[in-house]
């Protein structure tokens, strides 16, 4: 049995890594409506693994129970095959994920080959679950089983929640396809997908630029024209406006030299190509709304207000990154386009971004003060992120830099306390700044340094926030989470 349990341990460890790294952090399956069928398959498979782990840890399955166990193992094979087909339909897997899936499949095949003769012997014994003693393997397999069952439940909740999300827009009629379009780069991102959904519901023609055609087409349906290359857009296409939300996630991997280049290229290169498209189009777009961030101002921990007129801080990576993005976006001004540079704070909402993990920590009572906790924490509800983009598209007098943050900017500790309070919890943990800087390097500046950004331009232009206060925004999100 030791060999079987070693194989099961490999399945547990590699499967957990696959779930956390590929499904949760990279593909963000629980937040994508197009991944609902895949999540359903994962839910069933993980439940089966939970039963197998715990069942083999403590009992020998005999007679009819052995037949039941064999049936569960066979069903797992069918689910895995269906999962392969669903992944090919709905998204493009990165090479490492394909390799990992191959290793998991081979490992499971070896497990089945070794398990088959045991099952045959158990089938011929009297029916029953016979207690066995596998020593230290029993609690270890039980731990695996509890973990995978918890993940199955988590995916079941996500599967149920995604079932309440409206279906993608239907295919647009020919007359609508001749209307001027809104081109959205970064359309499958946290804010982008909400923007595309809202524009589609209003009957607007939308072109979505995405690196993953399968994912985007499965997510948005036939009502949205999805491209992975701007060269696929003919020069005679009528595009009225462009929204650029593209960019790799800033908070995550350490800011090594290679990672910094990825962050820079994922934003600057896309912006350059969008401006190149504007030059090529026979009828040029009237407006470009380009996403930047309040990191433009660098670390300003003294609480001094940062308005759109405040300068950047050359030499700080987050400031240099935002300045480079905005520099490329402003090239569209020479083409006669109105350019709005939205400097976003942390966007809060369900289905992605920072809030889900922060909310989970708060509900578990492990919210924490980061460093001194006195650094400003600018934020924005996703409703207002989409609202400000729409406002920038339609408000013809608005141009230049716009701080996309709520008027209420708390300190980090105040933010953590408000988040915990929204779930009836309190903050009692503290993460020392020295530890965070040692672990994350310069990337820790996002957590430990902040900007007291003021939405002066948005307020002056007449934008009215849906969620102007942190307490109201968190109450709204907590209520939606409870549904």
Automatic annotation (TrEMBL):
The keyword Amino-acid biosynthesis does not apply. Residues 182-395 form the NAD-dependent epimerase/dehydratase domain. Keywords: Membrane, Transmembrane, Transmembrane helix. Pfam families: DUF1731, Epimerase. Belongs to the NAD(P)-dependent epimerase/dehydratase family. SDR39U1 subfamily. Residues 431-477 form the DUF1731 domain. This is TIGR01777 family oxidoreductase. The keyword Transmembrane helix applies. It comes from the Bacteria.
């Amino acid at each position: 049995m030791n060999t079987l349990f070693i194989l099961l341990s490999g399945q547990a460890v590699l499967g957990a890594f696959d779930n956390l790294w590929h499904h949760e952090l990279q593909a963000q399956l629980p937040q994508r409506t197009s991944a609902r069928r895949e999540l359903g398959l994962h839910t069933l498979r993980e439940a089966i693994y939970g039963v197998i782990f715990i069942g083999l840890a403590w009992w020998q399955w005999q007679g009819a129970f052995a037949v039941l166990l064999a049936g569960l193992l066979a069903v797992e094979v069918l689910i895995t095959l269906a999962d392969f087909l669903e992944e090919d339909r709905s998204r493009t897997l990165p090479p490492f994920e394909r390799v990992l899936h191959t290793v998991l499949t081979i490992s499971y095949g070896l497990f089945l080959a070794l398990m088959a003769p045991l099952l045959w012997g158990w089938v011929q014994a009297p029916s029953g679950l016979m207690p066995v003693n596998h020593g230290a393997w029993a609690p270890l397999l039980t731990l695996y089983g509890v973990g995978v069952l918890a993940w199955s439940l988590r995916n079941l909740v996500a599967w149920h929640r995604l079932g309440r999300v409206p279906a993608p827009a239907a295919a647009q009629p020919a007359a609508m396809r001749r209307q001027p379009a809104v081109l959205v780069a970064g359309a499958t991102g946290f804010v982008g997908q909400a923007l595309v959904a809202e524009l589609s519901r209003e009957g607007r023609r939308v072109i979505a630029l995405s690196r993953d055609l399968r994912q985007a087409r499965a997510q948005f349906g036939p009502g949205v024209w999805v491209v992975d290359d701007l060269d696929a857009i003919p020069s005679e296409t009528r595009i009225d406006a462009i929204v650029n939300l593209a960019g790799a996630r800033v908070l995550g991997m350490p800011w090594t030299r290679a990672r910094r280049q990825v962050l820079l290229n994922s934003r600057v290169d896309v912006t350059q190509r969008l401006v190149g498209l504007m030059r090529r189009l026979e009828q040029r777009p009237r407006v470009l709304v380009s996403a930047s961030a309040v990191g433009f101002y660098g670390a300003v921990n003294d609480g001094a207000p940062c308005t759109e007129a405040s300068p950047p801080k050359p030499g700080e990576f987050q400031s240099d990154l935002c300045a480079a993005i905005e520099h490329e976006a402003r090239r569209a001004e020479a083409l006669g386009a109105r350019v709005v540079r939205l400097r976003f704070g942390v966007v809060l909402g369900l289905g992605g971004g920072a809030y889900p993990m922060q909310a989970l920590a708060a509900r578990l009572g492990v919210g924490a003060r980061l460093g001194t906790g006195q650094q400003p924490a600018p934020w924005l509800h996703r409703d207002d992120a989409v609202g400000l983009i729409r406002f920038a598209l339609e408000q013809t007098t608005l141009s230049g830099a716009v701080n996309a943050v709520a008027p209420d900017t708390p300190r980090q500790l105040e933010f953590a306390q408000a988040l915990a309070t929204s779930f009836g919890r309190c903050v009692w943990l503290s993460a020392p700044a020295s530890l965070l800087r040692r672990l994350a390097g310069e990337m820790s500046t996002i957590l430990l340094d902040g900007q007291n950004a003021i939405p002066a331009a948005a307020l002056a232009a007449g934008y009215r926030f849906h969620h102007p206060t942190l307490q109201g925004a968190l109450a709204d999100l907590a209520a939606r989470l409870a549904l």
